[in-house]
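We close this part of the discussion by returning to an individual protein. Part of our work consisted of pairing the sequence of a single chain with a tokenised description of its backbone. The amino acid sequence and the backbone structure tokens for this protein are reproduced below.
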Amino acid sequence: MRRLALAAVGLALAIAGPAQAQSTVGTPVVGGGSFNNAPILGPGTFRDTILPAEYLYYGFKLEAGQQLHIKAQTDIDHAAINAMGVLYVSLNIHTPTRVSDPNAHQPGDNTSVLQTGGDNGQLAISSEVVRPDQDNAARGTWPGAGVYYLAVHTTYTGDRFPPPRSEIPFTFTATIDGQAEPSTTDTPTPTATPSATATPVARESAADADGPPPSVAAVFGVGGILIGVVAGIARRRRRR
């Protein structure tokens, strides 16, 4: 039993040992487990580790006229990766709408799937050339300016659940080609300019137009009242 236990420990170390031997090439980064916490990177060479059945995300800000190119490779022997139950490592690119870009494979790219037992020692994938269009669609891909995401995934086909937490070190190089161009903008809706409020002008009716002006009518009205008062006083004196 003791010999079997020692043999099992030795096998585990043989599998896990190479996975811990990370490359010293590239800037160390920690990929995000989702789009929301993906680190925003620029051009350069980076290194990270990934677990079996894990997804990691990295963001790259692109302007109109630019294109993202990614080359990646694992830093340990493929047989060690297979021993973890991992069939292959894959790359994918998502547009700013966080939708997988169906046109991410450009001429000259290798397959985006690294068969760990095959001859493809390096992965390569590119984004589309970013267009200056505005995003006017409700859904789907949108190759306009914004943050593009590199997704790295390991497909696990082993019989251990949960999968072994053996780190697979990998290195990837990002280059951004093309001259940044301004994006087109929608034609702004013109702002209405407030106009001066017209002062309402009172219009005379036909009857008013035929009669005397208001000031004259007021004078006659007062005069009529005075005449009535004088006439009343005269009547009272007569009655006495």
